[in-house]
Amino acid sequence: MKPFTTASLVFLVAFSSASLNACSRVKPERSLYDRLGGNPVLAAVVDETIDNVSQNPKTSRSFDGVKLPVLKESIVSQLCSLTGGGCQYEGETMENAHADAKITNAEFELMVDAMRTALDHQHVGTREKNELLKILAPMKRDIVAH
Ligand code: HEM
After folding, report:
1. What does the pLDDT read at residue 24?
2. In a domain, 99, yes or no
């Protein structure tokens, strides 16, 4: 007696190729914007970060006379755009926006620290936090005066 009939072989091949297909169907990665928690989380992170640096005596000098709600909105829109949230950032380049303030390296690092703390307060995961900070890190050369 043959171990497999033709019908059972056809079934086996069809079944295994169907299950292989199902397993190899890879879901596209969600945007960083979505994984961060979208606009509510970005707005809360920017709110806390800017409140922190505009009140900390080591960083506050640049924020004198700056309309904080307008600045916060602009940064949220920039971060939304950079993380794949589909926003259109319409503000200045980082070089132009910070040229007059002559931002120091220490001030930049304090702002990044403030943002890291704010991301923790929003329970953003380590992977997402690092992805966002990695996007911001190269801006240092345009923001810090040299
Ligand atoms: C990764 C770090 C930073 C990012 C992503 C960032 C982003 C931005 C953005 C998007 C704007 C608005 C530009 C516009 O609307 O045209 C802005 C403006 C500004 N930033 Fe930053 N910034 C960073 C670091 C800093 C630091 C370290 C300071 C000071 C300690 C600072 C102080 C300011 C001030 C004072 C303005 C307002 C300038 C004005 O309205 O004349 N920023 N920043």
Report:
1. 62
2. yes
Confirm whether pTM is higher than 0.85: yes
Across all residues in the chain, what is the average pLDDT?
90
Query: Does some domain include residue 27?
Result: no
pLDDT at 98 over 50: yes
Residue 53, domain member (yes or no): yes
CATH of the domain at 67: 1.10.490.10
CA dist 49 and 110 (Å) reads 10
CA 72 to chain centre: 16
Domains identified in the chain, total number: 1
Task: Report residues whose beta carbon is within 6 angstroms of any ligand 1 atom.
Answer: 53, 59, 62-63, 66, 71, 74-75, 78, 91-92, 97-98, 101, 103, 107-108, 111, 136, 139, 143
Tell whether 120 is covered by a domain.
yes
**Location of structure tokens 């397993």:** 23
Each residue's pLDDT tens digit, 33-53? 999 999 999 999 999 999 999
Gap between the Cα atoms of 44 and 62, Å rounded = 21
